[in-house]
Structure to design on (252 residues):
């Protein structure tokens, strides 16, 4: 029986290949779309994939995870320009029934010479999945949402490997970025943690807030080692104003 990881890969590869079988991964009668820029049930997925494949897109999976009813991936897309994406699907009875994503143009390398997609991929410590999930949740709620950057050392390793395209490695650079202000308010402000997904040493936090005053969605992927965040990847995407949404489900 195909795993949720396999189903996610098959579905998203349909964008590249145009394979109509990829659309069968989805229960279109129940499918809930959370990308505000995508119509819901306006076009059959098989037809959509056939149309998209003619533009010669490329889908590259860097990291794929599974957590209960969810599968989530860290991808590179080449749709005339290179983009970095997190994709999240919820499954019922072997079919995808709900979808979220967060996509931004690729940037970098960062001041430490790292790209947005390189770095560790090996999933380990499966027995610590729940513990790492809770550590990430506490970090996100205390340090990111409550802005308790004085606590960051409790959660983040001093030698943090950083893949954010604007930041250098290390705890201090991360703290400084979170403390940075613009016109008297934090340049990056997390307001709410919506979901935390995990497999082993990797945890994805999905949050809402503002960057430079713009309503934004934050997807932060953390790799844990010895109970601390040792590596960080992210995407930050502006959320379109409500009047521009093509479905009514919301980003989160």
């Amino acid at each position: 029986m195909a795993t949720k990881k396999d189903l996610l890969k098959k579905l998203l590869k349909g964008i590249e290949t145009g394979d109509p079988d990829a659309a069968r991964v989805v229960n279109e009668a129940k499918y809930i779309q959370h990308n505000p820029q995508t119509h819901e049930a306006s076009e059959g997925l098989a037809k959509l994939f056939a149309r998209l494949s003619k533009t010669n897109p490329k889908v590259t999976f860097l990291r794929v995870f599974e957590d209960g009813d969810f599968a989530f991936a860290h991808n590179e897309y080449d749709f005339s320009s290179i983009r970095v994406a997190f994709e999240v699907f919820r499954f019922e009875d072997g079919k995808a029934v709900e979808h979220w994503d967060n996509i931004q143009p690729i940037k970098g390398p960062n001041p430490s010479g790292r790209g947005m997609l390189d770095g560790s991929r090996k999933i380990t410590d499966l027995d610590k999945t729940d513990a790492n999930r809770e550590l990430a949740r506490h970090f996100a709620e205390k340090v990111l949402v409550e802005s308790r950057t004085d606590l960051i050392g409790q959660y983040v390793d001093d030698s943090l490997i950083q893949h954010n395209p604007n930041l250098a490695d290390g705890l201090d650079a991360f703290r400084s970025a979170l403390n940075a202000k613009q016109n008297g308010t934090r340049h990056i402000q997390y307001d709410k943690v919506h979901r935390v997904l995990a497999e082993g040493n990797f945890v994805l936090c999905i949050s809402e807030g503002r960057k430079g005053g713009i309503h934004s969605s934050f997807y932060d992927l953390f790799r844990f080692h010895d109970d601390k965040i040792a590596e960080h990847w992210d995407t930050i995407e502006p959320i379109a104003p409500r009047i521009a949404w093509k479905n009514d489900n919301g980003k989160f």
Notes: The mean pLDDT is 93. Residues 129-145 form the longest helix (17 residues).
